[in-house]
Write a structure and sequence with these properties.
The complex is a heterodimer of chains A (about 290) and B (about 325). Chain A is mostly helical and about 290 residues long. Chain A is built from 13 helices and no strands. The chains are: A mainly alpha (about 290), B mainly alpha (about 325).
Chain lengths: ~290, ~325
C-alpha cells in the first residue's frame, strides 16, 4: 500500500466535507417540510431554527381525517396499479417482437417507434384527441395516453435482443409458439429488467399530475399530486374544513407541508429497498438499441 | 426470357413474404396493441398538427375547419408575446446548461474518490432521491423554503440584517431559483452516467502515475477527467438537442403572473393560450414550431455524436 501524502489527505478531507455539506443541504428542504408541518401557529415566526419550537400534529390530523385526502389517495393507488399493469403488458408485448430480426417489416416498425422519440404532436392535438375520444373525466384518460413510453420499449427491446437465440430454438422444435416462448421462457429470465421497468412506470404514474390538469375536471377524481398543487393556493385548503375535527386550526403552511410529505412518504419508504432496481438500466439508454 | 425471370423472382418474393408473415403471425399479433397505441396516441396527434394551418374549431374538426395557411405562424411572430417567450425559453435553457451541466461531472469525480462503504452509499442515495419527486412536490417544498415570512432561507438572510426576498415572485431572482432547483433535483441522478464511465478506467494508469509521484488531484485532472471526456462530450451534444425544452413541469409549478416576463416559455404559453383560452390553432402553431426546431436540433446533434464516436454511439 502506498502511503498517502499530506496533499492527498487534505484533498480527501475536502471532498468528504463538500459531499457532506451537499448532502445535508439537499436534505434541508425535506427537513424543513417536516418541521413546518408540526409547528403550531403561535410558534411560527420568522427566525432561523432547524428544530420546531413547539410540536402539534393538528395539520397531520386534519389531513389524515380528511375524507377527500383519502379519496384522492385511493385514486392515486388505483391509477398507479392499473396503469403499471397495463403499461407493463403493452411494453413487453411491443418490445419483444421488435427485438426479433425475423419480424416481417421489423425495420419499418422500429423506425415508427424511434420517430415518436424525436417528434410529437404536442399538447394541443393530444388534448383534442382525448376530448374527441370522449375520455375526459374518465380513468382511461390517465391510463391510455401514457400507456407506452418509447424509451421503456427501447430499454426492454435491447434487453430482449441480448438474450441468446438458442433459447427459443429448442422450444420451437418442441412446437411452442411465440406466445408460449415469451411467457414460459423469456419472461422468467427477464424478471430483473421487468422489475426495473415496472418501478419506473409506477413512479411515473405516482408522480403524474399534468394529465389530471388537462383531462380531469371532477375533483372527486383528483390524484394526490393534484391536491398538493391545489393547496399551493391557500384558499383551496378551506375545503378540508380545518379545525372541525381537531379543535384549533393548523396554519396553511403546516397543512401544505404535511400534505407534501404525505405524497412523498410512499416513495421514500420503497426507495431504499428497491434502489438497485431504480438504478439498473440507467446507462442502457446510452447504448445503441 | 429475362422478363420471365424477373416476374418469377417477384412471385417468389411475394410467396416468401407471405410465408414469413404466416410463420411469424404470433409476433405480429403481439405487436398489434402496441401498434394501435402508437398510431392512435402518437401519430394521430402528429397529423393533428395540421390544425396549426387552420382556424380550428372543435365543432367542425380538422376536416371542416377553415384553412389559413401560414396565418397562425405569422401572427405568432408579429405579436409581442411569442418572441419574448422564445427568448425566455432559450435563455433559461442555456443558463441551465451552463450551470447545470458541469455539476454532475464534478459530483461524479468527487464520488469516485470516496472509499466504498456506507458513507459513499448514503450520500449517493441522498443525491438521487429528488429525481423521484415530481415538480409539484419540489415546487411545494421550494415555496415553503423560500417563503418571505416563514422560510429558512429568508430567516438566514435576515440574520445578516438584510431585507427578506420574495424569490418566487421577483423577476430578478426567479431564473436563479429555476437553475439552482433544477441542479438540486437532477445533478445526482445525472452523475450516474459519469460514475459508470469512471468505474471503467483501468487502474494500471493510476498505478503508473503513483509511481511517477503524481498526487491525487493530478490523477483526477489528468487521468479521470480525460477518460470520461468522450462521455461528457456526448452528453453535452445530446443536451444541445433539447435546447427548446426549458422545463415545463418545473416552471408550471413555480411561476406566477409576477414573473411571466422572464419565466414564460413556449410550453407554458402554449398551455395558457390553448387550454386556457381555447385558441387551439394558434397554440398548436407555437407547439409545432417548438417540435420542428427540436427535431432539426436532435437530428444535427445525433449526426455529430455519431461522427465523434465513429458510429459507436448514437441515439438512433
Amino acid at each position: 500500500m502506498i502511503k498517502q501524502t499530506l496533499s492527498d489527505r487534505i484533498l480527501n478531507v475536502c471532498i468528504v466535507l463538500v459531499i457532506s455539506v451537499i448532502s445535508i443541504v439537499s436534505l434541508i428542504p425535506i427537513w424543513n417540510a417536516i418541521v413546518v408541518s408540526i409547528t403550531p401557529s403561535y410558534a411560527q415566526s420568522l427566525s432561523f431554527s432547524l428544530l420546531p419550537k413547539a410540536i402539534d400534529f393538528n395539520a397531520w390530523k386534519s389531513i389524515l381525517c380528511s375524507e377527500f385526502m383519502w379519496k384522492c389517495f385511493q385514486n392515486t393507488v388505483v391509477r398507479t396499479v392499473l396503469g403499471t399493469a397495463l403499461s407493463l403488458v403493452l411494453t413487453i408485448l411491443t418490445a419483444y417482437p421488435l427485438s426479433k430480426k425475423r419480424l416481417p417489416f421489423g425495420c419499418t416498425f422500429n423506425a415508427l417507434l424511434t420517430f415518436t422519440m424525436i417528434f410529437n404532436g404536442g399538447m394541443i392535438p393530444a388534448y383534442i384527441l382525448v376530448k374527441n375520444l370522449h375520455l375526459i373525466d374518465t380513468l382511461w384518460s390517465l391510463l391510455l395516453p401514457a400507456a407506452i413510453s418509447s424509451y421503456n420499449v427501447v430499454v426492454m427491446r435491447s434487453f430482449f435482443a441480448g438474450l441468446p437465440d438458442s433459447l427459443e430454438e429448442s422450444a420451437k422444435l418442441d412446437g411452442a409458439n411465440d406466445f408460449i416462448i415469451l411467457t414460459k421462457i423469456v419472461l422468467p429470465l427477464s424478471l430483473a429488467s421487468v422489475a426495473t421497468i415496472s418501478l419506473w412506470i409506477a413512479v411515473m404514474h405516482w408522480n403524474s399530475w399534468f394529465d389530471v390538469v388537462l383531462y380531469i375536471n371532477d375533483r372527486e377524481k383528483y390524484v394526490l399530486q393534484m391536491v398538493l398543487k391545489e393547496f399551493q393556493e391557500a384558499s383551496s385548503i378551506d375545503t378540508l374544513e380545518l379545525g372541525s375535527t381537531t379543535g384549533t386550526a393548523p396554519t396553511t403552511e403546516a397543512v401544505q407541508n404535511a400534505s407534501t410529505l404525505f405524497v412523498i412518504i410512499p416513495i421514500l419508504m420503497v426507495y431504499p429497498f428497491l434502489q438497485k432496481y431504480f438504478m439498473k438500466g440507467v446507462t442502457v439508454g446510452a447504448v445503441k438499441g | 426470357m429475362k422478363l420471365n425471370d424477373t416476374t418469377a423472382v417477384k412471385l417468389n418474393r411475394k410467396k416468401q413474404l407471405s410465408r414469413e408473415i404466416w410463420q411469424n403471425r404470433y409476433l405480429l399479433l403481439m405487436l398489434l396493441p402496441g401498434l394501435a397505441y402508437f398510431i392512435i396516441f402518437k401519430y394521430i396527434p402528429m397529423f393533428g398538427l395540421t390544425m396549426a394551418f387552420q382556424d380550428y374549431s372543435l365543432k367542425e374538426g380538422i376536416l371542416g375547419s377553415q384553412w389559413v395557411g401560414l396565418g397562425q405562424f405569422k401572427s405568432l411572430f408579429s405579436g409581442a408575446d411569442f418572441p419574448l417567450v422564445l427568448k425566455n425559453t432559450i435563455v433559461i435553457s442555456l443558463l441551465k446548461l451552463v450551470f447545470g451541466f458541469p455539476t454532475p461531472v464534478i459530483l461524479a469525480l468527487m464520488f469516485n474518490e470516496l472509499r466504498e462503504g456506507p458513507y459513499k452509499k448514503i450520500t449517493q442515495t441522498i443525491s438521487y432521491i429528488p429525481h423521484f419527486f415530481s415538480w409539484v412536490v419540489m415546487g411545494a417544498m421550494l415555496t415553503s423554503l423560500l417563503s418571505p415570512s416563514t422560510g429558512i432561507i429568508n430567516a438566514i438572510i435576515q440574520m445578516f440584517g438584510m431585507k427578506p426576498i420574495y424569490f418566487i415572485a421577483d423577476p430578478k431572482y426567479f431564473v436563479g431559483v429555476l437553475v439552482v432547483s433544477d441542479i438540486w433535483k437532477e445533478a445526482g441522478w445525472n452523475s450516474v452516467v459519469y460514475i459508470a464511465a469512471l468505474s471503467g478506467i483501468n487502474y494500471e494508469m493510476h498505478e503508473a502515475a503513483i509511481i511517477d509521484g503524481a498526487s491525487r488531484l493530478k490523477r483526477i485532472l489528468y487521468i479521470n477527467l480525460p477518460s470520461i471526456l468522450p462521455t461528457v462530450a456526448i452528453m453535452l451534444i445530446l443536451k444541445m438537442g433539447g435546447v427548446l425544452e426549458a422545463g415545463f413541469d418545473q416552471i408550471f409549478n413555480l411561476y406566477n403572473v409576477a414573473v411571466y416576463d422572464v419565466a414564460d416559455i413556449i410550453d407554458t404559453y402554449t398551455y395558457r393560450m390553448g387550454i386556457g383560452q381555447y385558441q387551439y390553432s394558434y397554440s398548436a402553431a407555437a407547439g409545432m414550431f417548438k417540435s420542428v426546431i427540436g427535431l432539426i436540433l436532435v437530428l444535427i446533434t445525433n449526426g455529430l455524436v455519431r461522427k465523434m464516436s465513429d458510429n459507436e454511439v448514437s441515439v438512433f
